[in-house]
Design a protein that fits this description.
The protein is mainly beta and 319 residues long. Helix content is 9%, strand content 61%.
C-alpha cells in the first residue's frame, strides 16, 4: 500500500512540474475565478439486447446548482440538489455520490465513491416501475498519462485552469481499478437470474484527445478512451466465481467561450463499464455528468496567505 502511495506521489509530482510550450498553453492573467454552475450527474444500470434496445434503471436525482472558487491550480466547490426538480412519478432514491477529477499537465486522475439505492425504469405506459431495494455501489480510480502535454492541455478543456492558445492533440495511456456490488437486482427477464454480484475489475486503456481552438476565444475539446478489464465476478446468491474480460469506455467533451474576464461553457463526462453478458443482454453501468457554468476571473491586491499556495507548493517543498 505504501509503495502504491509513493508511485502516485511520483506520477503527480512529474505532472506538476511538466514543461509546456507557451505558444500553445498559457496561464490565466488573473489567477482567481468564481463560477456558478448547474449540473446533472448520476449512476445508472442498463440492459441492452442484440437489437440495441435499452432497459435502464435510473435514480431520481435532481439537477444541482453550485458555486466554485478557483485559485492558481486549486479549487473548491459546493453544490445543492434542487428538491423541486425531482420527478414526481419516479420512486425515491438515496445516494452518496463523490467523484474527484484532477487535471494536471501530464496526468489525469479520476476517483469514484458512489452508493445508490432506489431506482426506476420507464415502462410502456408512459410511467415508471419503481425498484426501491435495488442498490449499486461503485468505488474506483483511473489514471491516464498525456504524451503531448507540452502542447495539449486537459486542464484547459475540462477544468478551466489555464488557456489553450493553439489547437493540439495527444495520445493517452492509462489504467483503472473498480469494485462494484449489485444487490436486489429485479427479475425483469428469465435470463437475469442470480444477477446480484460483486465484481473486481482492473486493466489498461488507451485514448486520444484533441483541443480545437476556433476564432481565438472558442475552445472545443473531445477525448475518448477504450480499455479492456480483467474482472473477477462473484454471484452473491450462489457464491459462484468466474473470470471475465470486459470492455470499458470513457468520453469527455467540452465547449467554452472566453470573453475578457468571463468564461461560458459546457462540460460532459460519460463513463461506461460492461458488467457481463448472457444470451440476450449485455449489462453496463453508466456514469453521466453534464455541467453548464459561467466563470468570472479577477485579481486580489493583497490575497490572504492560504490563497498564495496550492497543490503545486506541496511538492515544491518536498523536492
Amino acid at each position: 500500500m505504501r509503495s502504491i502511495f509513493h508511485l502516485l506521489l511520483f506520477l503527480v509530482s512529474i505532472s506538476v512540474f511538466g514543461q509546456v510550450d507557451s505558444l500553445y498553453i498559457s496561464p490565466f492573467e488573473k489567477p482567481y475565478g468564481v463560477s456558478v454552475y448547474s449540473s446533472r450527474e448520476f449512476l445508472s444500470m442498463s440492459y441492452v439486447n442484440s437489437k440495441g434496445e435499452d432497459k435502464s434503471f435510473e435514480p431520481n436525482k435532481p439537477i444541482s446548482l453550485g458555486v466554485k472558487f478557483a485559485w492558481n491550480n486549486s479549487s473548491i466547490s459546493y453544490s445543492y440538489g434542487l428538491p423541486f426538480m425531482r420527478s414526481g412519478s419516479m420512486g425515491k432514491s438515496k445516494f452518496i455520490d463523490f467523484k474527484y477529477n484532477y487535471y494536471a499537465s501530464q496526468i489525469v486522475f479520476d476517483a469514484y465513491f458512489q452508493q445508490y439505492k432506489g431506482f426506476s425504469m420507464a415502462n410502456t405506459e408512459g410511467g415508471y416501475d419503481v425498484y426501491d431495494d435495488l442498490s449499486i455501489r461503485l468505488y474506483g480510480i483511473s489514471m491516464d498519462y498525456v504524451f503531448n502535454s507540452k502542447k495539449f492541455s486537459m486542464a484547459a478543456a475540462y477544468d478551466h485552469k489555464e488557456r489553450q492558445l493553439l489547437s493540439a492533440g495527444s495520445w493517452l495511456l492509462g489504467g483503472s481499478f473498480f469494485y462494484t456490488k449489485l444487490n436486489n437486482v429485479p427479475l425483469i427477464d428469465e435470463e437475469l437470474v442470480n444477477y446480484d454480484k460483486r465484481v473486481i475489475s482492473m486493466g489498461p486503456r488507451i485514448g486520444y484527445g484533441y483541443n480545437l481552438v476556433a476564432r481565438k476565444n472558442l475552445l472545443i475539446a473531445a477525448t475518448f478512451s477504450l480499455g479492456v478489464d480483467g474482472a473477477l465476478e462473484k454471484e452473491l446468491s450462489t457464491s459462484r466465481t468466474r473470470f471475465r474480460v470486459n470492455p470499458q469506455a470513457q468520453l469527455r467533451f467540452s465547449a467554452n467561450y472566453q470573453y475578457r474576464d468571463w468564461m461560458f461553457g459546457i462540460t460532459s463526462l460519460y463513463h461506461t463499464l460492461l458488467m457481463g453478458t448472457n444470451k440476450k443482454y449485455y449489462v453496463e453501468l453508466r456514469n453521466t455528468n453534464i455541467q453548464f457554468l459561467v466563470t468570472k476571473r479577477f485579481t486580489l491586491v493583497n490575497p490572504p496567505v492560504i490563497l498564495r499556495h496550492d497543490f503545486k507548493d506541496v511538492f515544491h517543498r518536498n523536492r
